[in-house]
């Protein structure tokens, strides 16, 4: 039968097992949240003789060892629940594990972990782990309630490589790791020798200890030596991750060595590290010091969650264990009938992927040199004064900025020496290194030294950015784009203080490559690592160089398409440390294939590339003749190098499978050099990393490093003009003023207004980023905006202002519908047809009370467009968004205007067919935020091409259009001469714009690729104007974003806005009724 966890813990209320204590004292509150239902197991007749067949029911005693205690007390007893005074992780884990085991063996005991003296400092009172182990074993031996020799014991060892008592005097990181490993081995050796019948859980609590220490006052003199191992010198996130992995690597090798598997009654299993839980930040700040009962209970829940996670992993084979979860309703796992035992290395049939790391490197050391056959290596006859006349030999100073790639991390590391990735081999760095010569080491500096042997600034050997060896290679491992300005500051200071450099007259080459760490962490903080902030960091750095460094040629290398690193993790039996890869670059490595998270990564990556291109092509850095920034795009689309068997070739990577090996650095150097010699617009974008790169020579006729000027390259216009030209000769109003809506000339219109959704509100029209998408650029809106004039902003009001300069009602600037500058633009982002009647009422109220218009006498043009949001939600509620309801809501809106607004033309634009927009979100080559598809318009932009939901939306789109058409053509709104509704059908067939490459042209859209940009609104405004002057029956029923739309003019034969009557258009009349929807809906059955 099934046992509920709540019933299980009633046994724990007291040593006598009375249940009433549980309710009286509120004990074990933290343990009630877990779902537990296992088949009740009978106590086995015989206990297991092998630890590799150990069942939960075989366990008699549970205890733990570690340095995470907070209150005194010890002794063996039956389970006693955690108290409201607060208990440590060790205490709660022991009690939780014992409680779970009690469902299989009710007589299980738990040995409370040894605790330090309350109030004492960790430095003075913490119990040494080995001494603690000896004391625990002594207590178990002395306990008369257990048979020490024959009872099975579950012992969890919480070991921290960040122990506050660490005394790593050496600055060698490897020595620190070995020292900690020896301490752990001493503990495990003692248990192996002295404790029979034991299953040992080894849990890395490093991160928990670090989180706790991070929350303390580090200035406390009583704890001066904490965390010495990881604070020898300056450490980055890269250092921390490599060290953490190295500890895990060392421990797993230790356990996999079978050192503790020689006996059949003893084993040690490394369980997942506590660093993999999201609880640590909260625990770190309150795990040892609590101030309230609520905080204490919350911590108990968190500790219990970790303990249940530990239990669940004991039920999982080695190699299949899962990270701990912070879910409050954890499902407690049960032993299976097939595998009723706790998993060990042996019964898991586990072979470590790290076994290969014991293999000796057999390949011969090779050089990565190159030959250069350039005959002309001379400098200019006189030192050039223009950056556009700069020969390679004219470069006297070289510098580099960036992250660990440019710092050279792991570039010369042996294949399995992962800890050596922390070494920065700056001397072989692709853009800044200068070890040996080009014949043995290919770097940009060594290539330049073939032209000018007196080159200054390259780095040699190893070391961090603050060493003499680094010279002007000021790249910092772990840096993001936001840190580059600080690198520039150090670079400039070093150049100014170097007596070998004539700062004012020497020509300088500086290479900047940054962004990998931004992409690796963007998902943790999308705002901080947004494309805009990424570009801003680069812009700030380039601005500093432009302002402070004379005579400089700056290479800005485009960020690589980083998602291809995922291929290294995807390969089975790969030697890559996949867990470490996930730590180093979680936002790239961890997302599932085809997930929104992966789509978001691809989008951010493409936008990083696009924004840097726009920055350089803005001409911002071409204002003086002695400075330029050139974008070098050779890494734009480079693919993963492959072996002959088609697998990722790890020889191009450092042992962490993240940083580049010297082999790749050589390739990067050659490719960068070649890009520098190639004209803008003709630069090579390499597709294969392993392709041999032949080092090019300067063209004898044009021997200069290529810039926009000496390439005869014109940057695209960064401030396009979206104005239009109106060629109409007759712009006069009617005389006398018209009394009929069917005799209305454009100049007769005195008031414009609009109703609708985000399209009319102007959402994102001029936005540069997704962060700005909430901005409503009403002054640029296609149907109602009035910013500037038609010469530079094409909108419907600006066209009408060419006929009547006194027209009013248009919106300007930015803001919501409630702002005064919105005027009669009452559109609301997110609005659906059901919201339109309220917009109409607000518009009528504003018109009646605005002193600037003569409500009764002025002719008004009101543009209405709605329905996109209805279609985007259609598949979620077919009834609510039915065509019947849509038409009914449109009718209610038009009825309000018909009854309340005299002298009005209502231009009703049919609902836009949204389905073609899918092309922007399906094509992976398009720079669109595909991860936002569900948020923007889930019923249209997501799902398969022929899905039932999409088919329903297509049917609904046509039903919406036909339903509204029948409503308008019913004659309901042509009952008097001063009002009419004109249907504009040009949205029935929409054509997505395509660029020369065949992919959608996103310049017509805002950054979300859903709302039109100013370029798109300009086209919409032209189409709307032309529809207004086209006779009914001859109106366009399609719209092409890219069409060269010429503004039509009224003719002598047709000088009026086209209405049904003045177009001599006939349609089957339908007698208007108060409730025509039944008539309209009845026609839908045919569609």
Task: Summarize the structure in words.
One of its GO terms (biological process) is phospholipid metabolic process. InterPro entries: GDSL (IPR001087), Lipase_GDSL_AS (IPR008265), Phospholipase_B (IPR035547), PLB1 (IPR038885), SGNH_hydro_sf (IPR036514). 30% of the residues lie in helices and 8% in strands. The protein is α/β, with parallel strands linked by helices. The protein folds into 3 domains: 5-352, no CATH class; 394-677, Rossmann fold (3-Layer(aba) Sandwich); 741-868 and 881-914 and 958-1082, Rossmann fold (3-Layer(aba) Sandwich). The strands form 4 sheets. Strands 2-3-1-4-5-6 form a 6-stranded mixed β-sheet, sandwiched between helices. Strands 7-8-9-10 form a 4-stranded parallel β-sheet, sandwiched between helices. Strand 4, helix 6 and strand 5 form a beta-alpha-beta unit. Helix 6 (173-194) packs parallel to helix 8 and helix 25 runs parallel beside helix 28. It starts with a helix and ends in a 5-residue tail after the last helix. Mean pLDDT is 85; it is low at 1-30, 69-84, 117-126, 163-171, 213-234, 280-291, 354-364 and 1069-1087.
Output the strand order for the largest sheet: 2-3-1-4-5-6
Shape: flat
- What are the segments in which pLDDT stays under 50 over at least 5 consecutive residues? 1-30, 69-84, 117-126, 163-171, 213-234, 280-291, 354-364, 1069-1087
Distance linking N and C termini: 57 Å
The count of domains is: 3
Question: What structural category arises from helix and sheet content?
Answer: alpha/beta
Fraction of residues in helix: 25-40%
Number of helices, counting only DSSP H or I runs of 4 residues or more:
30
How is the biggest beta sheet arranged?
6 strands, mixed
Query: Would you report the number of β strands?
Result: 16
**Rg on CA atoms, Å:** 37 Å
Report the mean per-residue pLDDT as an integer.
85
> Which strand-content bin applies to the residues?
5-15%
EC number: 3.1.1.3, 3.1.1.4, 3.1.1.5
Membrane topology: Single-pass type I membrane protein
Enzyme class: hydrolase
Protein name: Phospholipase B1, membrane-associated
